[in-house]
Amino acid sequence: MGTTPLVSVRRVVAWRHASTNRRIFAAMVVVGAATLLAKVLAMAKDIAVASYFGTSDAVDAYFISLTVPTFAINVIAGSIPAALVPAYLRVRERDGIAGAGRLLGNVLALAGMTIGVCCLVLALLAPVLVPLVGGRFGGEKLLLTRHLYLLVLPGVFISGISGMFAAVLNSHERFLVAAVTPAFMSIFSIAFLVVAAGHWGIYALAIGLTTGYAAELGVLAWALRARNLLAAPRWASWRDPDVQLVLGQYAPLVIGGAVMSSSPLVDQAMAASLGSGSVAQLSYATKIVAAGMGIGVTALSTAIFPHFSRMVAARDWTALRHTLRTYLRLALVASIAVVVVIVVFSEPLVRLVFERGQFVASDTRAVAVIQALYALQIPFYVLGIVGVQLLHALSANRVLMWVSIGNFFTNIIGNYILMRFWGVAGIAAATSMVYAISMVVILTAVGKRLRSLERESSPTRPVDPDAGDAA
Predict the structure, then answer these.
(1) Which tens digit of pLDDT belongs to each residue from 367-414?
(2) d(CA 438, CA 211)
(3) Residue among 267, 253, 301, 246 at smallest CA distance from 405
(4) Which residues contact 210 (CB under 8 A, 6 or more apart)?
(5) How far apart are CA 397 and CA 390, in angstroms?
(6) Please, are residues 243 and 237 in contact by the beta-carbon 8 Å criterion?
(7) Which 3 state secondary structure label does DSSP give 55?
(8) In Å, how far are 114, 153, 377, 407, 428 from 264, measured between CA atoms?
(9) How many CB atoms lie under 10 A from the CB of residue 361?
(10) In the chain, domain spans
């Protein structure tokens, strides 16, 4: 009986390593569970904030102070892993772990300087940016917002470095550490609230958030050093061809990320033109769908991207196509099931989560319709994300930049037309329409790129090592 747990573990490990698809599924389970934990802790943090500060001006100031740094994290820092990992795995395939570690060190030095300069610029522009996003804030509330903004701004720098470290660990199939550490932001925020809120007020929350970012970076750096995956950067590292490849892929990712991150702001602005309560209805309608997709899509994209990148580096197109087909089918079946549940039970879900106090039955009915239309995007969004991860792995990020720009303008046009007939519900319908069109474009681009690479890799033609960079 004493050996039973050990035997079970060995069987699980053997099952996991039997195929790429099983390794991806196992990674999805790990990342999904860790992401769920992070969501639960984030909710606990929100409950703690509500308990300490309610809906006071201090909370308004805190959330507004996060607007620009969060946008910067998503655009500047969030684009680095997609540019780095495919090049990192190609170098690892060619030069081994030592060569890949040198590339990571070189990119780390350049990325650190670039993000640091961006943070300095954002800090210097605080007198302009904070009043801009703060709307009608004035006096002490505006001053508090500016102080909080400066406290949370270092999180942009830290998050950029942490994202690189997490992506490299994922590329080595070390998913657990990278998946768990984002929970530190909530843990430290709660801890600082409990210990220091009485003395520091809302500043305790901002300091806790930034400390959580720092703790995440420290653990990820330790994990890299423990595996000897990080080397010191070289002088004039920007001249390295592999570094230039990463930089060339980073630029279109930043542009595309900036455009796509603006779409929710456009939706809110257009909803505001529809009258009182429209923005709130749209916001409530996205909560449940966004939470579910956040867990599922994070698990899928995190698990599948390093495997796509590894197969591209090895030019194993047969295995790549098999994995792509497998997870497109699984994603389609699972996402349709989720859509059916949300659409059928939309009103009971909204009633369960939101209907209390000032949120009355008429609000529930209005939000439920919007939520059902918003949920229609799920299959298109999830299948599109699978295609996006493969295009990242193929270093076809310029394609994604143009797709993002197209989505932005399609979203505006769709909002304008459909909101005239259906109001706020039209904005939700337009979002689903945009992702449907986007999915078709992305998967078409994936098919074309794979056929092109398969022809170039055939024995009758010479192989172009830079074929994946033509986009």
Answers:
(1) 899 999 999 999 999 999 999 999 988 888 889 889 999 999 999 999
(2) 38
(3) 253
(4) 151, 152, 154, 155, 158
(5) 10
(6) yes
(7) coil
(8) 26, 22, 14, 12, 11
(9) 10
(10) 22-239, 253-455+464-471
